[in-house]
Amino acid sequence: MAFTTRPTLSGDFAMVSTTHWLATAAGMSVLERGGNAADAAVAAAFTLHVVEPHLNGPGGDAPILFSPAEGDPLVLCGQGPAPSQATAAAYRELGLDLVPGTGPLAAAVPGAVDAWLVLLRDKGTWGLEGVLDHAIGLAEKGHFPIPQIGRTVEAVREQFTRHWTTSAEVYLPHGLAPSPDERLVNPTLAATWKRWLAESEAGGGDRETRIERARQVWRQGFIAEAFVRAANTPTVDATGTEHAARWEPDEQLRWEPTWEPTVSHSWGDWTVHKADQWSQGPAFLQQLALLDDLTPSDLTTTGSGDFDAATVHRLVEGAKLAFADRDAWYGDTLPTPLALLLDGAYTAVRRSLIRDTASLGWVPGEPFDGIPARVPAHVRRLLRGESVQPTMNGLGEPTVQHQEPTDPQPHDPQPTDPHVSSNGQTRGDTCHIDVVDQWGTMVAATPSGGWLQSNPVIAELGFPLGTRLQMAWLDEGLPNTLTPGKRPRTTLTPSIAHYGGRPTLAFGTPGGDQQDQWSFHLFVRLAHDFEASLKNGRGRLDLQAAIDAPNWHTEHVVGSFHPRAWLPNTLVVEGNTSPEVVGGLHRRGHQVQVGAPWSEGRLSAVARHPHTGQLLAGANPRGMQSYAAGR
To answer: Does the pLDDT of residue 335 top 90, yes or no?
Structure first.
């Protein structure tokens, strides 16, 4: 049996797994009082807005997957679009070649909260007052914050004290960053939720009527009005200068969350469901399609049961190909039909590019015969070996990066924290929620954006806008060109997997561009182990063992976050990866960087066993804050 930090939880009532124990407790509390998976997920989400403000907020985004016990799963899109005046040309006229990593210009229309309301209205059974209860109490009375919040605030202290003083009032009271030993309160946020709740309750009506009234307050009431004022206020952003957006008064009314079919791909008896090409989710499916020449049991392991160097190499090379297609063909404007990217003949051509040694190029495919990918100018600079720190007017001194394979190198010593620069630019990391209830309904969601370091706190609301537009390009004519009303191609990507047509697994992870790497590794490991154990019985889904197993990611991916770096052939592995695997990867030509032990992956998962109905859950031990609960 594989070593695990915790047991895989097992029961038959309900399971919750999130990136913070208080959110898990909130979700489980709802389930214990008769709520369903949707009710519990919404309660957990509002709690995460309070207890992980450095990783998500009400001004951010939330793709949500919903899988009923019977029937097809659905996607609820909580990714807001670019506002009505946010054109690529307008940003270029400001002298920009990339969307800044912070500030109003990077803010998409907030999508998370409206999506949670639609989920609650359409699939839940509770009212807003019940699912908000924990969040209001934690904001008003305070909670003892995790250390990462204080470290994030210290990273942006100068930005807060010099420029974003409304943020300093919340997160640097008396000049001190939040400490795990003292309560962190946000009375303004609590007051916002209370006023919002009161206005939604005014006039009475049934549950759905009151939720719809809450949506209207969010979309055109005092909250929406505050969004417009904040977006249109000049703010010092990541460029070091002031910029303001140009939001119209009705930006929130021009968009609303939508229910959409999932996109999917099958591998043996498994079918994985993801959001469409406005997310990076199909990159998971393309990686899976590249394994169609194998069965799960064909993946090879070491004596300890972890994937060996040959398997890791194969998965890394597949990721390089899938993510190159992501950056060339995904987007909300003129998307390439996913059927072409998952077509068997196209995948076979792509698979033929995988060799026994590490590839060094960035190679998107040509799903349309003879039509090459249009590559953003910034990516062309990266491919020429120019490491350009983007500035106003795109000027900067390029330096050539020589990426020859070397001996394994140590990596980030503090990997459990988000990567935050002094001006608030954040490379990734976020939150995740998985729920399965007593009826077998599953929810997987990845709320993010609206971090405390993304924009100034809106004084009258207690939280900031987000920065998702930094993932759109300012070149014209691309699938992911910044375009009013279009969703920027997000990194947020929850997953649902069915086995034999039965809803079986809800899973996901924070981590930006790593999300569809870490979660993909979890899935193929579970599929491999499940198939092996079927030979001895009904099959075992050891979620915790798969979460705890050594993980890795490639930096051979054009970054989705400003300044959108690319580190060709760089492969980062955990320090607890066996020397045998590290050496095998190095011999295959990968530039291996060895991180700290327990540094790769922020995964959580819940499951309903397809044969026995047993409910299961596991949570990430890395970072010491994620927990699962259930019975």
So the answer is: no
Residues ≥6 apart with Cβ < 8 Å to 12? 438, 613, 614, 615
User: What integer pLDDT is reported at residue 419 of this predicted model?
Assistant: 73
Q: What is the DSSP string of 466-528?
A: --GGGGSBSSTTSTTB--BT----B----EEEEETTEEEEEEE---GGGHHHHHHHHHHHHHH
What is the tens place of the pLDDT at every residue in 47-58? 999 999 999 999
Structure tokens at 400: 């050539």
Question: How many whole angstroms separate alpha carbon 235 and alpha carbon 237?
Answer: 6
What does the buried/exposed string (b/e) look like for 68-97 if buried means 16 or more CB atoms within 10 Å of the residue's CB?
eeeeebbbbbbbbbbbbebbbebbbeeebb
Asked if residue 433 lies in contact with residue 67, where contact means CB atoms within 8 angstroms, the answer is: no
Greatest Cα-to-Cα distance within the chain, rounded to the nearest angstrom: 70
CA–CA separation, 228 and 487 (whole Å) = 19
Task: Compute the residue count for the chain.
Answer: 631
Distance CA 57, CA 76 (A): 18
How distant is the alpha carbon of residue 280 from its chain centre? 9
Local structure of 19: helix, strand or coil: coil
Q: What 3 state SS string does 558-625 have? A: CCCCCCCCCCCCEEEECCCCCHHHHHHHHHCCCEEEECCCCCCCCCEEEEECCCCCCEEEEECCCCCC
Q: How far is CA 43 from CA 25, 217, 283, in A?
A: 10, 19, 30
**HSE-CB for 401 with a 13 A CA cutoff:** 18
- The tokens of 444 are what? 């997987």
β-pair type (9-11, 615-619): antiparallel
Model confidence band, residue 429 (pLDDT cutoffs 50, 70, 90): confident
Contact indicator for 547, 6 with CB cutoff of 8 Å: no
pTM equals: 0.95
Residue 228: the pLDDT is: 98
Mean pLDDT computed over every residue of the chain: 93
In whole angstroms, what is the distance from residue 88 CA to residue 331 CA? Answer: 15
A 10 A CB-CB count for 509 gives 31
Whole-angstrom Cα distance, residue 153 to residue 159? 10
**What residue ranges in 153-281 does DSSP mark as E strands?**
235-236, 242-243, 258-261, 263-267, 270-274
Residue 336: pLDDT band by 50, 70, 90 thresholds?
confident
Q: How far is CA 408 from CA 21, 302, 434, 500, 579, in A?
A: 35, 20, 35, 42, 10
- Pairing relation of β-strands 409-410 and 591-594? parallel
Residue 402, pLDDT above cutoff 50: no
Kindly state the average pLDDT of the residues 567-577.
Answer: 96
Which pLDDT tens digit goes with each residue over 289-317?
999 999 999 999 998 899 999 999 999 99
